[in-house]
């Protein structure tokens, strides 16, 4: 028995070593990890093939391995495609390693359906909740196996079953902690990069914006005075274009100043339902000019704690972007509702041009915009305001089909 446990411990060392190599040498975001060709999936296959080809033999009848570990991790962290691909490799490997293929396929078909059903639940929790969920799911295997052994009367085998299951569960929990720690480090790194960019923008705004605004105001004033003189049609057109471009530059400078300016206004309880309706009314004429229809369905009495003018600025900016993405003859759907977890979700959907995954990742970064004359500061400011209020923005889009902005804010009630 002790020799078998030692063999199991060698499997543990190999599995943890493989995960550590992945964590140290490979950098993959969560969305990349969900691809079947990802480095994470390759690591799962290495673990799966190794543990099935080198099972621990307790007796001629009973064999133990860790194949359940890569299957669970593939489903939970790699997604359904990676999970089913791992099961397919498991069945292929099972043809050469001895277990009865029909029994293996039956057991893991049931287990896969269970994993699919708890994936969304697993992702809702933080690390402790995730460990509890996956522990309860895994324990179904040794419990059912233990009942079978009790009925059979094989007591020594039950003792080893308990020992091996404890080792496998401890390994699974350790891997979950490693992966969650890696995810947290990636998030912190992205946060630091974003903060550095914001600091650069803030410093630039503080040092340049005020100096640039004064001469621009003077130039604009002289341009307006020139319009009172007798001018040719072309000269008048050139002056109008110059004034428009000066106003656009002024708007960009104001956005820089908004990013640089620390928020000093006290938080207040805001009637979010009213703010959403006001924002829609402000943009309604702009939408009509572009033959765009705005549909809205907003729950009554929604309240948040934050800054009224700022959240209205966020809504107007995103609705304006949606209108410009459609260009003409489209539809925008706006809805807001309070979820069971106390978070208010505001959805702004359009059926415009849409975006690629790479474009979505870059959205919100200073200086990046999908518009020809955009600076990217508008969405950067939106992210900045929503984050100050304890929320975040989720963007989903499909090229040539449309985009959905999901603004999530904590409820004030």
UniProtKB/TrEMBL annotation:
List residues traversing the bilayer.
7-27, 39-59, 71-96, 131-151, 157-179
Might you give the EC number(s) for this enzyme?
Answer: 2.7.13.3
The keyword tRNA-binding is annotated on this UniProt entry: no
Query: What one GO molecular function would you report for this record?
Result: ATP binding
Question: So what does this thing catalyse?
Answer: ATP + protein L-histidine = ADP + protein N-phospho-L-histidine
Q: Which CDD domains match?
A: HisKA
What EC class is this? Answer: transferase
Q: Keyword Cell inner membrane: yes or no?
A: no
Q: Which InterPro entries does the annotation name?
A: HATPase_C_sf, HATPase_dom, His_kinase_dom, HisK_dim/P_dom, HisK_dim/P_sf, Sig_transdc_His_kin-like_C
Give start and end of each Histidine kinase domain. 207-413
What is this protein's record name?
Answer: histidine kinase
- Which PROSITE patterns does this one have? HIS_KIN
Supply the alphabetized keyword list.
ATP-binding, Kinase, Membrane, Nucleotide-binding, Phosphoprotein, Transferase, Transmembrane, Transmembrane helix, Two-component regulatory system
